[in-house]
């Protein structure tokens, strides 16, 4: 049974303060990045565009371009990193979802106005030189959301 | 620190038996679909393209087009559906990742050859009239993967 949704679209209203425009990334927590990359190539034919160590987040990450969306594999580089804690609690798997927005600062202002719980109160540097901020999963119905500012991909 | 990955790419090898070409969908388990849709519109400016009840899977789903990738919100319609069990065990959040492939049947053959554990041994009908099959999270490093056969999106 298909039901066409009503189209009282936020995106078409004048003055809409926030619009997610794209999925920037899907991040997966892995215990061993080399092993995970070998699996994604063998099983799905996916290979990394680049690898990066982000010491401020305690991760080494590999980015696989899947039709314009980044699949990000995240391995902890120290025991006290958020990814290490996530793996210890939940095991490997889907970790967070990255949404592209025109301005992370404006998006944070909007989410604060909407009483959505944040992790980062201000935009900060993330992987690949992007400006990012994280929204708390308790604010979004269980999904850790990263806001990623639009630029060249 | 950026490290360019070596490019011994599977995708460029002759006779590569499997290539994921795109992210079809990111699925999120929600206890209340109406409430979740109201949140995604209010917080992120995202509205559904359509809603569908898939009785064979025990779900009602709403599909939000985020720059060409489907964000799929899944609410259980009965207590014994996989999504109801997932919510009872894990709470709401990221549930599965859908990869687009040219042929689900060929992809299943390839994954069997690679000893990757499957949930569906044969292609089957999924939401929106698509041909799909699920790969077991124990076969993929913790991620429930849905293979979705390419067609018009």
Automatic annotation (TrEMBL), chains A, B:
Pfam families: Glyoxalase_4 (PF13669). InterPro entries: Glyas_Bleomycin-R_OHBP_Dase, MeMalonyl-CoA_epimerase, MMCE/EMCE_epimerase, VOC_core. GO terms for biological process: L-methylmalonyl-CoA metabolic process. Residues 22-150 form the VOC domain. It comes from the Bacteria. Keywords: Metal-binding. GO terms for molecular function: metal ion binding; methylmalonyl-CoA epimerase activity. Belongs to the methylmalonyl-CoA epimerase family. PANTHER family: METHYLMALONYL-COA EPIMERASE, METHYLMALONYL-COA EPIMERASE, MITOCHONDRIAL. This is Methylmalonyl-CoA epimerase.
